[in-house]
Write a structure and sequence with these properties.
The complex is a heterodimer of chains A (about 120) and B (about 110). Helix content of chain A is about 0%, strand content about 50%. Chain A is mainly β. Chain B has no helices and nine strands. The chains are: A mainly beta (about 120), B mainly beta (about 110). Chains A and B meet through strand 5 and strand 10 of A and strand 3, strand 7 and strand 8 of B.
């Protein structure tokens, strides 16, 4: 069974930094591209970042480019999101998501970790 | 920036058919995917690549595309289908994943 378990969320002040982790199991992690998708309270889904299976192709939403860094450790079956210069508008549930290999869909989602940026 | 446009809300009575649209002029060059999200839960993939369905998804959920509009159709609507629905595609021009704003399905 595919499992994606996020951790690292919390409450922090504007301008702060945080590192999210996603532990993957139940599949060959190193074969799949991965994404982070977030959802602000009461709002829709927003794609945040993409990283291919080897970690060589990386893309970011314009809203986080230059502040967030996605990475992965295939030996540890883990995905990471380093978030810097956090703003109130970054407050959201952050989902770790696996990309489907055939069509690029988001075929499995974690349960999410909540990040709250507030003074 | 390029967007996918969904109606904010759709309603249907139990047993009826609900249709949720997703518009965008880059739709057609690559497949559209659909997700269901119930309150307090993570999204679930319903349809991928316009019209394919994961094995665990009931046949009542189907997808189609015509021109620059993709449609999610839910037949024989049930109370348990009340949820938010999102469309999604990869935009190869911007190299961004795009997600629609979401549509809330209300079962009357």
């Amino acid at each position: 069974e595919v499992q994606l378990v996020e951790s690292g969320g919390g409450l922090l002040q504007p301008g702060g930094s945080l590192r999210l982790s996603c532990a993957a199991s139940g599949f060959t992690f190193g074969s799949f591209p991965m994404d982070w998708v977030r959802q602000a309270p009461g709002k829709g889904l927003e794609w945040v970042s993409y990283i291919n299976s080897a970690g060589k192709s990386i893309y970011y939403a314009d809203s986080v480019k230059g502040r967030f860094t996605v990475s992965r450790d295939n030996a540890k079956n883990s995905l990471y999101l380093e978030m810097n210069s956090l703003r109130a508008e970054d407050s959201a549930v952050y989902y770790c998501v696996r990309d489907g290999l055939v069509a690029g869909d988001f075929d499995h989602w974690g349960q999410g970790t909540l990040v709250t940026v507030s003074s | 920036s390029y967007v996918l446009t969904q109606p904010p809300s759709v309603s249907a009575a139990p047993g009826q058919t609900a249709r949720i649209t997703c518009g965008g002029n880059r739709i057609g060059s690559i497949g559209v995917h659909w997700y269901q999200q119930k309150p307090g839960q993570a999204p679930v993939l319903l349809v991928y690549d316009d019209s394919d369905r994961p094995s665990q998804i009931p046949e009542r959920f189907s997808g189609s595309r015509s021109g620059s509009t993709a449609t999610l159709t839910i037949t024989r609507v049930e109370a348990g289908d009340e949820a938010d629905y999102y469309c999604h595609m990869w935009d190869h021009i911007s190299e961004h994943h795009l997600l629609g704003g979401g549509t809330k399905l209300t079962v009357l």
